[in-house]
Prior knowledge:
This protein is an alpha/beta fold. The protein folds into 3 domains: 5-146 and 273-337, FAD/NAD(P)-binding domain, CATH 3.50.50.60; 151-271, FAD/NAD(P)-binding domain (3-Layer(bba) Sandwich), CATH 3.50.50; 350-464, Enolase-like, domain 1 (2-Layer Sandwich), CATH 3.30.390. It contains 13 helices and 22 strands. Strands 1, 2, 3, 4, 5, 6 and 17 form a 7-stranded mixed beta sheet that branches. The protein has a 5-stranded parallel beta sheet with strand order 8-15-9-10-11. Strands 18-19-22-21-20 form a 5-stranded antiparallel beta sheet, with helices on both faces. Helix 1 (17-26) links the parallel strand 1 (5-13) and strand 2 (33-37). Residues 150, 179-185, 187, 202-204, 207, 269-272, 319-320, 351-354 line the site of nicotinamide-adenine-dinucleotide (NAD).
Amino acid sequence: MSGMSRHVDIAIIGTGTSGMGAYREARKSTDSIALIEGGEYGTTCARVGCMPSKLLIAPAEARHRAEYFSKFGLKGTVPDVDGIAIMKRVREERDRFVGFVKEDINDFDPKHKIQAYAEFVDDNTLTLSNGDLITAGRIIIATGSRPNIPAIFNEAEDRLITNDDVFSWQDLPKSVAVFGAGVIGLELGQTLHRLGVKVHLFGARDAVGPLSDPEVRDYALKTFKAEFPFHSNGQVNKIQRVETGVQITFKATPDAEEQTEVFDYLLAATGRRANVDNIGLENTTLKLSERGIPVYNPLSMQCSDSHIFIAGDANADIPLLHEASDEGRLAGENAGRYPNVIHRSRKTVLGVVFSDPQIATVGKSFNQLTEKGIDFAVGSVSFENQGRSRVMLVNKGFMRLYGDTETGALLGGEMIGPSHEHLAHLLAWTIQMRMTVEDILQMPFYHPVIEEGLRSALRSLLQAMGRGPQPPLHCIDCGPGA
Ligand SMILES: Cc1cc2nc3c(=O)[nH]c(=O)nc-3n(C[C@H](O)[C@H](O)[C@H](O)COP(=O)(O)OP(=O)(O)OC[C@H]3O[C@@H](n4cnc5c(N)ncnc54)[C@H](O)[C@@H]3O)c2cc1C
Ligand SMILES: NC(=O)c1ccc[n+]([C@@H]2O[C@H](COP(=O)([O-])OP(=O)(O)OC[C@H]3O[C@@H](n4cnc5c(N)ncnc54)[C@H](O)[C@@H]3O)[C@@H](O)[C@H]2O)c1
């Protein structure tokens, strides 16, 4: 197939969140751009990621709260689940979000947009699936990621699904075996369970979400296992497509009896793989890491000292929406400036899992600090007796914060608990401002609020760093139950 050949200043492969950010920045330096998209417009986040998953979680949480009504002394029954209505809202709202993205793309200059898959022929040349050839002075790889599917899952045949399938359902299924207790598996597994779907969550090596702190992980394992069948360290012996669905033969723990269960679907949530193995990188002179990702500088997004940049999930570094957006803009800016590439500081790392209780990680993780041999102190708090959390009957949680013994600075934290999407933001902001734990404790804390739990963890950290008094056990001047 021979097609047209065209030269541009900047070619961007992928029109997801990072590609769109890159485009907006690149546009400031040139009108000679090719913005290439092989799949559907609309972004992973809006189509099959962040937004539809949160849309499915919302009714599950609302219904779950109703299960607590009787504990408050409220009479009434837990509402029935109307799977068709729930999925209709998920699809409609998702389409609304996707519509906003498409409106943005509609406003992009038509002469810049190309719908085709791109592959490198050499460092400056891309071949397109429509037969055309693009040569470019600078190239941005913003190709995102796709679900990683272990070969054994193919035994589930047509009953193997991923997040790409879930949000197009017309109705909720009766049962789902969720594989992978990472972020996606936890969010979707717990949600489906709460919507009345029979769920078994199959994990590996007792991993749970992004947690690396063994104490927080143990708390999370205990909490989720108390709610639904979660085989965090089981052994799956066979996966088989049977007439009624997919049959899983497994041991719930290595010493348990083998058992079989049949599910409507097997949902693979076993990590994501960067879309860089299928874009002809072998035809370039780019240096690749052991994982096959081009070696790049996260402060500039530049691959080695080349004219090629990589942003978003494609670099497999911090595969989150706000990072994809920041990285895309930086890649676009630097592609425009090349060869005068500049560095920009990155934000404090912040991750939230929208499970219930929510899991959050901020700053340096327990593993990072331990592996680097950094001398750090740990403060902690349980939310089980935290005043406001108990009032609201959301008193499940455990937070561990890490501080620099030498400087007194807050370094990071791992946590599970109520309203932790908000507490994690406060922590990330203070870390980014390089505040010491003592400084943070000078900030106002209202009463009675869940933030008072955070204050207890900070006080415990201050003491662990040898920088403060023993935290008051029952801080009556903080208000009852603080
Ligand atoms: C179920 C789920 C839930 C999530 N929830 C959250 C959340 O709550 N919060 C959060 O921060 N993050 C969340 N994420 C992660 C977030 O969605 C991603 O980090 C983000 O969307 C990545 O953006 P991107 O631009 O790198 O990739 P994408 O948006 O996937 O864009 C990449 C684009 O490149 C195109 N492409 C690929 N290869 C080629 C090629 N060879 N030629 C041309 N085009 C190509 C693709 O078709 C795609 O459109 C979630 C992800 C999933 C899957
Ligand atoms: N709330 C959010 O911000 C959010 C939500 C969803 C996804 N995401 C992003 O998407 C990325 C991908 O999510 P994910 O959950 O697919 O990946 P993940 O890396 O978070 O988790 C994958 C899990 O699968 C397990 N696993 C691997 N092979 C397995 C097997 N054969 N059987 C059982 N378990 C197995 C791993 O041990 C790991 O715990 C996340 O890292 C995150 O960046 C973010």
